[in-house]
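Case study.
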Amino acid sequence: MQDRIKYWRGIEELENTPEFAKHAHNEFPEFLPLNETQGESQSSEVTAPRRDFLKLLGFGLAAATLASCEAPVRKAIPYLNKPVDVEPGVANWYASTYFSHGDYNSILVKTREGRPIKIEPNPSSGVTPLGTSPRAQASVLNVYDNNRLRTPLIKGKEAKWEQVDREITSKLNGINGKVAIVSSTVISPSTKQLIDEFGGRFGNFEHVVYDANSASALLGANGGVVPGYDFSKANIIVGINADFLGSWIAPTPFAKQYIKNRKVNPDKKEMSRHYQFETMLSLTGANADVRVPIKPSEEAAVVTALYNSITGQGGSAPANFDKKAFAAVVKDLNANKGKALVVSGSNDPAVQTLVTAINQALGAEGATINAAAPYFVKQGNDAQMIRLINEMNAGTVGAVFFYNANPAYDHPLADKVVSGLKKVGLKVSFAERVDETAALVDYVTPDNNYLESWNDYEPQRGFLSLAQPVISPIFTTRQMQDSLLTWSGSKTTFYDYIRNNWRKIATGDFNKFWEKAVHDGVLENGTSLLKTNPAAANTLTAAAAASSLSGRRAASGIEAVLYEKIQIGPGYEANNPWLQEMGDPISKATWGNYVAMPRKMAEEMGLTQDTVVKVTTANGKTIELPVLVQPGQAQGTVSIAMGYGRELDSMPVVKGLGANAFPIATVANNSVIFSSPVKIEKTDAISPIAQMQTHHTIMDRLVVQENTLAKYKENPKEVTEYVRLTTHDGPVKPATISLWEDYEYKNHHWGMVIDLNSCIGCGACTLSCHIENNVPVVGKAEVINRRDMHWLRIDRYYSAVEHEEGDYQTMEDPAENPSVIFQPMLCQHCNHAPCETVCPVAATMHSSEGINQMVYNRCVGTRYCANNCPYKVRRFNWFAYANNDKFDYNMNNDLGKMVLNPDVTVRSRGVMEKCSFCVQRVQLGKLEAKRENRRPKDGEIVTACAQSCPTDAIVFGDMLDPESRISQILVREQGERAFHVLEEINTQPNVTYLTKIRNLA
Amino acid sequence: MQHVSPIREPLVTGGKTYHDITEDVCRQVEAKPNARWAAALAVALVGLAIFIYSVYRTLWFGIGEWGLNRTVGWAWDITNFVWWVGIGHAGTLISAILLLFRQKWRTSINRAAEAMTIFAVICAAMFPVLHMGRPWLAYWVLPLPNTFGSLWVNFNSPLLWDVFAISTYFSVSLVFWYIGLIPDFATIRDRATGPIARRVYAALSFNWTGSAKAWSRYETVSLILAGLATPLVLSVHTIVSMDFATSVIPGWHTTIFPPYFVAGAIFSGFAMVLTLMIITRKTFKLEDYITLEHVESMNKVIILTGSIVGVAYITEFFIAWYSQVEYEQYAFINRATGPYWWAYWSMMTCNVITPQLFWFRKIRRSLTATFIISIFVNIGMWFERFVIIVTSLHRDYLPSSWAMFSPTIIDIGVYVGTIGLFFTLFLLFAKFFPVVNMAEVKAILKSSSGVHHHKHATMHGTEKELSTTNTHHSND
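After joint prediction, the assembly is written out as follows.
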């Protein structure tokens, strides 16, 4: 064969010497000095040759330099097999349900690449179709909470599920005494049934339900359910210490109903009138037309007087009371029988019995109260829980399970819970983290997050909804219901259990029915699954209640009220930094609780804001908290929020913030009373309260406008004041005099209308915006430094004390009982934007669709734009907020970062940011329309704030489309309620506000 | 040929000869540093160290190290910037405008004043860069051709005008100052004994020969540069004032700002020149060159500009009332009576009241009084910028966003640090460069020094002509 070679690699091949043959298989037959540098073959002898030294040095230097320049390598692992339905870059939506301690929301969960990243309202729901509560918005972060338990615990040590199951099962088999499951309200029909089945095999079993913020008396007076209030049907609403828009019973549905009858337009110039008698200035009181501050101890007198007046027993206003306001209430109620509603937040059975009687006398039943659809969201029975605590202390309880309940923290008898627990043989908690109660139990068997679970709910009779998992459990947790099934020896999963349960109500083919129910998230054909507990009903008659109350006397001394903050609730979700950073709708305080005190009391005691006081409660416990001077707080009272004072390592976000205020609650006659007399002493300490707003009055400026319904009916053209510039041709609109050319919008012109009459100030929009746009959390110290990053904030103004025109000093002080107005404030997307002209590098400019854009990559951070913004809506990244141990929130750990919206850049330090009109949503909407070869439909593109608003106060849309809702509103309200903030600066905003109308008595 | 009135006070006292001038000025450069200078430098270096540390904190952790917030986006940073730029103005005014007006008394102070300008502008220029969120991208404010697409700077932005104004001002001032130094460097070169000193000064003097042609070009260039620098005295602070005047913020949006800022700049600049001069003449024993006449002349400028500033303050109030714009009215009432009233009244006291003391000749001619008042003016002018920036921003349109500003230790560190930087540079200059322009002082020696003036009053005209010619050739 060799002979046939005609071309040789060299003379050696031709000759085919033995030496050549030896190397013939090598690519490089000659010696190559490769091994010299590799040093593998002759490891000990060979070192790098001298002549390579510089080469290596150079390479090493270059490599080191390059490596230090380059961003760290982040691994992205591609799908080996792409999951069905997961399209990278495309969001999937799943219907689900959020329910936590009374806060019910039917929701849609947005997932990206298998990660839930956003909660939106489920428009198919009849209960909460419009928006969500702030807590529901923020709940998406809870699933990524690094402090959740990763495995079950046995006596505080990590354990395997098999071991836990083995031990609990064997202990349950030999149980002596009572077996109790302690939970907060359960509105899941299947769970309730499962709990009953689980308990069925024990001789002595009880499912004890209590609520940290109890509505026991209300339930008692109404046959064990919350009456089916419908605020939309009421022309006259009287609230007595019931914060039904913020924290009482079912705020999200109530807000929707309430605002339905408060919206006005040229075709509907009627709205309800709302009276509020309350101690603390609540969100509800802030929205009331007439608000009368009362002490908690005066509640009984007010209700009795109302009862007597309405039932014609000639009641008159209680002593030291606003007689005019009271007379107006009575007159209005009598004139609106069948169209009036009275609600009370009291937990006194007698008071609630009277309120029920008042509503009956007013003919509310069947009108403003839908008897067929009572609410189930509160079922706690104080007496039952108190009895259990006593039994525990008596040693007659053999096993206790805690599900969504933390009585060692949030029950007034927490001390007795702690002591009682020592006498219980088997203690199990399903808590997702080691909370105060879980720290005392033998077994913690962590429940899944709700986004990892199947569940069903019935918040209101006839309104069923489902929850489905949108992510597989991140940790080795197990749903509580599955644990119960396992311990009952059942092999079914809870998913099958729910399905089986729902077969009872299925119509037609079950699979189709089930698929539709899961898809819609709701089933609202009137069928009901949930069993209620009528035993909770009390037997008090109205007359007996009235006579028992008539003996009550208003207490002297300072009365303290324990209340629930809209964003923190009873404190179960307190470890969520988004919720902590959300300002309280009224006080605008973040990160902690405080003693809200009327100014007069503060002055009398020589206290100023931020001074720490020692509050000694009736049971001798002390609470040390700073003072917040709160206008509207009833004289002689203070209020303190629950949910704080956590000293748990499992709650690092809230650890060390505020103090536990539950000691204010007391137990009397088997009910929990949320107010009690306290003593207050001044201390020398100062503890600054992190308020997002520190100036509270409007300073007689025309930035937010309001008027009365009477005026609106008389002449709607006069309710809004418009600024006109004086010229030699007479007064003209500021927009007609301009230095700049107007933009021409050819395709779209995005705009927003915010109806101040619909905005209740709840703050759901602020959180929704925060979450949608990856806005960083900055923490308490930085909020004190006034560096919060909220793109959308709600400005809250109190009316000032009586003052002369131009008396600036006096007008800084809020009135004692101020009227309150809320104004959502976000980038106004000015057509003549002051920020755009001043940026030296043109990092902020106007889009061809009217959006004022911020180009993060171009921003060098001079902050000139923020200074020149009259609305002060621009936010600067003072530090790196992501990957920074100083800001150890969700953006500083890999798990927490999962919640980030991949469509929105995480901003680096040193750049400006602000509301973008959710440009990512606008672009997505346009792209989807384009793919289908059509124009975007009105309502298809919605900003996060507008979507999450429970009262539909925010409307976003294309102002160039004459058919769009926004265009129609603008046409309808032009010259009547529509106004621009600071019109005289001629910024020509794309955000229009509608004047608030008050129905004053 | 100029005529100098025989009754004018002499500009150089003590019967100095040309050689005396050379000796007196070069002594500082040639002698070993004295203890007082070394001590001063040590203090200045501590300031510089503070500056470096504060800048490190700012750059490494972010602007959050300062006390700014979402309402007050600028505070000490821009206050310091405007203050330093303002201080710089005196140097340019003295050397350029007074040169054009043939004010001979400027010759003995213009060198130090110009040096002060340059160092002040260096200090000032730190702030526009440092106050940026991402200072490593500071070059983006330059209209450079780039690969970012069609990205260009925004010519509408006053900050961009600032970039041009400050950089032009700095380069022109630097060149002007340096041209003036060349003949003096040559003098030092000629006297230098050490080989290194000789070489260094030779290089610094661009091998100046002192030929008639060189002198003629020197004069021409000085005149041209003076012509260029003169509009800059007016333009730089006009443009700086536009950072505020073109905005929409009440208290900033004011058409009076350009003249008001220019007057304020000269006011503060002269005060700073006085502060420095009084120390320098004492330390370096230059009492015969920087005389009481100089001090008094500068004090007169201070009364004038201080009064202009005072009128401007009052005019702002009047216009706020006259405009009937509620936001504008509140901005000014808030300045005087709001939470920052102390800053406003510090400003009023230091800037409007104290300079009026210079109406008294005794005070005007008292070095101690002048020194104290010059410090007052420096403080007052700092407060003026603080008042304009912070009190306008902290309570603008929407009361919901009203906030207070309080500086952090880093804010203070950066400010104190720039003073350290300034004095470090100034002390190095005073040691290694001739602090008085020898060539130009010699030019006025015959005409304006006491000795020659009184002895040869009749020969005055001829004498002066002669002396000018002589000066041109004497670098001894």
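Observations recorded in class. Confidence is low (pLDDT under 50) at residues 452-476 of chain B. The two ends of chain B are 25 Å apart (CA to CA). We will return to this complex in the next lecture.
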